[in-house]
């Protein structure tokens, strides 16, 4: 079997504006250690040979090192983030050298998604071995309406929509190629960057409803319950 090299970029350069705290959400305590450490530990457990690149805001690097020292935690390779998520991922990609032979897979994961399920990661990697790109999705439970520019709205069939999660995984060479494109405002995630480069044959796999993104303070309480299970 051809050897597969697996990388994971963890994007944790946000300032947590929506979180409503002076402390960015990825550094908040959850069950005795920062959210971000749960995320890293979960990925290391799910894929023991993964090469992780951690993207941090330049202003937070020293604080992160203090947290690591206090928790006796070994940080992955670190890179400074940019002004946008796209720029942060691009900075991380600049540190990755794709092997000339064999398959390479690059996952990209939100640092604020600490409930990393090993079975989900296994599904994503297995699908990525045969695909251009893979994204985990979950059904939408809320009713949806389409909002028009004039303020009017119409109902839409929610069965036709899925909510997208991370980690997303892509062929390493193709992802590097896609990120050579100039930035566009419609780059909402890495799959959209791939699509802009002509690599839009993305495979969907079942996500995990517990794989929530920490956005509000109460989300930490919910995620902590999932982690305990």
Key phrases:
single chain; Spore Coat Polysaccharide Biosynthesis Protein SpsA, Chain A; globular; two-stranded antiparallel sheet; alpha/beta; 25% strand; 229 residues; 7 helices; eight-stranded mixed β-sheet
Describe the structure in your own words.
With 229 residues, the chain is of the alpha/beta class. It has one domain: Spore Coat Polysaccharide Biosynthesis Protein SpsA, Chain A (Alpha-Beta Complex), CATH 3.90.550.10. The protein has seven helices and twelve strands. The strands form three sheets. Strands 1, 4, 5, 6, 7, 10, 11 and 12 form an eight-stranded mixed beta sheet that branches. α1 crosses α4. The mean pLDDT is 94.
The CATH class turns out to be Alpha Beta
> Any idea what the shape is?
globular
Which architecture per CATH?
A: Alpha-Beta Complex
The largest sheet is: 8 strands, mixed
Helix-and-strand structural type:
alpha/beta
Average pLDDT works out at 94
In total, the number of strands is 12
Secondary structure: helix percent: 25-40%
- Compute the gyration radius: what is it? 18 Å
* Strand portion: 25-35%
Strand-and-helix sequence, N→C? EEEHEHEHEHEEEEEHHEH
The N- and C-terminal alpha carbons lie at a distance of: 35 Å
Q: Quick one: CATH superfamily?
A: Spore Coat Polysaccharide Biosynthesis Protein SpsA, Chain A
Uncertain runs with pLDDT below 50, 5 residues or more?
A: none
By CATH, the topology is Spore Coat Polysaccharide Biosynthesis Protein SpsA, Chain A
- Number of helical runs? 7
Question: Structurally, how many domains make up the residues?
Answer: 1
